[in-house]
User: Fold these one by one.
Assistant:
Number 1:
Amino acid sequence: MRLGFPRALMYYEYYPFWAGFFYKLGIELVTSPSTNREIMEMGLKKAADETCLPVKILVGHLMALRDVEGIFLPRLVSMEENTYLCPKILGLPESVLYAIPEQEIYTLDVNWREGKREVLKSLLAFRTRIGRTKSQIREGFAEAQRWQKAYRRMRNAGWSFEESMECFETLAEPLKLKDLGFSRERSHRQKTADFEDGWLLDQGDITDSLEKKPRIALVGHSYLTYESYANMNLVQRLREKAQVLVVENVEATPIELQQSHLQKKIFWSHAKKIYGAGSYYVEDPEIDGLIYLSCFGCGTDSMTNDLLARRARQNQKPYLVLTLDEHTGEAGLVTRIEAFLDMLERRDDYESNLSSYGEHMDRHSSFT
Amino acid sequence: MKVTFPHMGNTWIVIQALLENLSVDYVVPPLNSKETLTIGTQLSPESFCLPLKLNLGNFVQAAALGADTALITGGVGPCRFGYYGEMERQILQEAGYPFDVITLEPPDGSLIGLAERIRKLAGEKNTWNRIVKAMLFAYRKSLVLDQIEDLFHGFRPRIQSPTQVDRLYEETKRRLVQAMTDQGLKDVLNWLKDVMQQSLADYVDCMEENPLRIAVVGEIYTILEPFISMDVEKELGNLGAVVDRSIYLSGWVGEHVFRGLVQGYRPLRPYYTLAKPYLNHFVGGHARETIGATVKYAQEGYEGIVQLLPLGCMPEIVASAILPKIQEDYGIPIMTLTVDEHTGRAGIQTRLEAFVDLLERSRHNLTAINEGVLELAGR
């Protein structure tokens, strides 16, 4: 059996879970190719025009999944206690069905709000669709959790998103590798040189050599941060000039602690994480500035962005908002990043020592 | 402590009755206007949904009248409305209006917390007995308010003079505000029914036998607040259509404040069953209600549906992506109208007129429609 899985939205955080689940059940999970121009255009054409960019990209990926028996698109309701995901994700299989009328859809509700047992129940109810027994599902669920945990550990150990996903995909798709490489030994794997420095923060030597580079926190939804086609390689661009930290680099405990600034806890799983991480970076004196990566029409971002901007203002932390949509131009993005980095540099050198006559304004240009 | 609350259509009449019965010091903010929206838009984040902008405007205008405490309901659903309280507190704080925001919801699910908040609002002087009584009376008032609004839905298209209807509507609201006993509420309804019957008798000759029936569905704030929907219901009524609306205030109060213990004027429960084939899970806000109501009106033989949503409303965007399926299944025309602070009255009016024209035409050309658009164009 071959099921298709779109490389969009929830792929960026929960792919290992489903990869592990289907791996154990002996079902091949085929992921759609990385976002490209064709996928993007199909999505823009077919998706509801008012919805947000990530959902449009998702529609493109769904349409790009061919030669599969069906598409696996779960409804993720909640990923932890007392939270939900955003309404557009909750409405998922139904609200994109129009784009793929002839495809068979395999879906189930995933609700961690009520705990592990509810999720297992939902998976057990799903077994008839894929023709597996109860005990097989239980094993698959255990394996799925192990894979998800492994993914977290890899990320915490400094693996980049691309590296770890590549690893899981090779496992899930052609079923080549047999064991998970939790160890940091990566000699047998070919690594992509471009993505190294920012992630290996735990290795002292690299941090030393990068002393001059500013440290920047890039906060935003994972499906924007790692969607390198839509964000025009933002992460890589930033890494050339700065050390970049992301939401996933912050542990769960500080995220929970940061909620105490609010009189009411945020009740969206992702928004909570983004706010917690962003707020944590705002307080961190080692961080030189924050970049919030958002997309046009994102409902929860309109809130977290405002809350974080206020925190940044109060703590005098440089803060830049980048809003993506299908019309975002590369030059506009680059200009703004450069200006932001220049500002950080200047702030470092002349903070509270700005001459009102324009002296020392900029080391690159001279005022006469 | 001087309490104020945001506007949502005629809701203020009900909240005013509640606060009045509790002898709480309160201010009703000036009705929503261009100025309210301008103030709100300046303060709120650009891409936030429209109700927040108007709420902020209401609070700032109420602050000028001495208000220092804002009353609002909450929720922990995935709709952004649930987080309004905290957002508004922070925004107002930063803008120099240090409001105390009382969010009427169980904080972290604790009912004791909710009781404490109600206590804070009502003060020490009120007994729980009195608080419950005041709430139940407010609920009964909201039922009457909904009945009145629905009476006008049927009345307006049958009367040729819109100004006469408007005048009667204002007079009824004035009387309703003053009615503070159950007998008073009954009197308002009876008086209104008498007046309506008399007026209908005057127009009996030129009355449309079988007016168009159009339903307005969508996000609750937009469909209840005429300022932001550009009087959609009124415009449709003046164009000769009988309007119905998916959500009435008491239905919402019954479901969300009384947790389904009372049903209200248009209960929301049946919608959930009807929505099932199209959307099998709640997504927050009123997406399920919108879908369920659309199915209901389609089954009841309504001729057109207008969906209203504020720009960027997450649940309604999900609903609007599913509505075309219902349109196809039941063959009922559905028009989606998105409103935001830049919406112009003329734009909405034109589209409503065109919509009504289309519906009227399809009545006369039913066979032609069934044959297809091309045949129709050829005639």
Note: The beta strands of chain A are 2-5, 28-31, 70-72, 75-78, 105-106, 109-111, 215-220, 243-246, 289-295, 319-324.
Number 2:
Amino acid sequence: MTHDHRPLDVTRREFNKGAGLGIAASASIGWMTFVQTPASAETPSESTAKIELNVNGEARELMVDPRTSLLDALREHIGLTGTKKGCDHGQCGACTVIVDGRRMNSCLSLAVMLTGSEILTIEGLGRPEDLHPMQAAFVERDGFQCGYCTPGQILSAVATLEEIAAGIPSSVATDVTALPAASAEEIRERMSGNLCRCAAYPNIIAAILDVQEKRG
Amino acid sequence: MKPFTYYRATTLHDAVTTLAARANARIIAGGTNLLDLMKLQIEVPQQLVDINGLGLDTIAGAENGGLRFGAMVRNTDLAAHQIVREQYGVLTRAIVAGASGQIRNRATTAGNLMQRTRCPYFYGTAMACNKREPGSGCDALNGISANLAILGTSDACIATHPSDMAVALRALDAVVHVLGTEGERSIPIADFHRLPGDTPHIETALRPGEIITAVEVPASIGGTHVYRKVRERASYAFATVAVALVARVDGASVTIERLAFGGLAAKPWRVEAAERRGSGTPEEVARDAAAIILEGARPTDRNRYKIALAQRTLHAALIDAQEQSR
């Protein structure tokens, strides 16, 4: 009997796709309980669209199938794989990016709808030698374990502090006419669209509060 | 996702005629629910008509002191608007009780009203669902129905409407402005969402080809505004029971001015007869109002708890009103 020593034909990316779906399927009895995700093989589309995205300050022209999400455009077309695909249904927040100054789930928007938009991904926020204060705070506070949700957490955190500074209310407000404060309670509520299955939440909150403190 | 053609509408008229020209065309606004359903092939439109370039995103004073907000006003912007916060607090509170920050930044006023149920049997394509596939039956009736409806249900469907915003709009007597190829009309929010009956797949009063252009609320009625939502986790979950309340508070005594429930039916549930039935302690008022509102409830064995929970949530909301008005 011979053994085939070819390396496993599974990439980390494919493994992660499967793992992400597992997260969605194992949620408590809720609206996704019985979901069966259709096979991912796609019928070829007859149409493609030319779009232009400004990603991290760089203009990008792409030809995309209209079905392409912003997330897939970033990862598969542009090659910026820092933005992560978790559930692909807007429930986990791993794909959070900042579009025209606002955080959103890149899995829940079609790239073709965002032509002309300015997109900030984790790659554009800071560099390894020049970290954004939020990235530095996550490192300092150990705001992650496996790291998969981290790019989404960090972009969401940056936008959360901006939203608080802009006076956008949240559900923890007892007086919705008052300006919100960047308390731990506010930050927990506002970060609820970003799941961390390693449960690094306490350290994530600590990191965000550190940045807020330095902002003053 | 199945292939579709993508069309970016250039004017409102263009959007309406394009939508009307194809039976299986759908409007896309924020896309936060539609794209999710398209990925699961529960929604399979052949054409998407994108109305993001049409504006429809202003909030402005309306006749008789009311407020009108465009179909494309994002949930975040509506919740954060100064007049909404000051005069229609229940609306701000309801919006921020729903979804996540990311989704509220993208989701729109019209899209929020048009979102589909989150009934797990609607989402589970291996299950029978009269909404997803008319005539196929309803597996929820004898299934896991803990989060499903107890009022206005039928033998064909026990799904709930998931919106928080719509519950506040119902309490505020909002009107939905729509445009079709035959012109404009206005639909009171009370009539906008339909009960399931024998046709649960027909969810709104919109006629084929019609689109929402704006939502309007009449002049503020003042009062203390409360939105209290009970859910299975503290944030980012759909309601099991939600209460939108405008109350008058006079010391230990409270009066219900407006009251609508979410999480109980296929539409926001309001029974006007339960409002202004006199003043009393939160406990008395909640007991009397809940008795009227929940009369005729038809729970399953798994969601019978919602009858008691609805009364207790109202009781708690009335106490919230007292605390907020201190």
Note: Chain A touches chain B through 58 residues (CB under 8 Å).
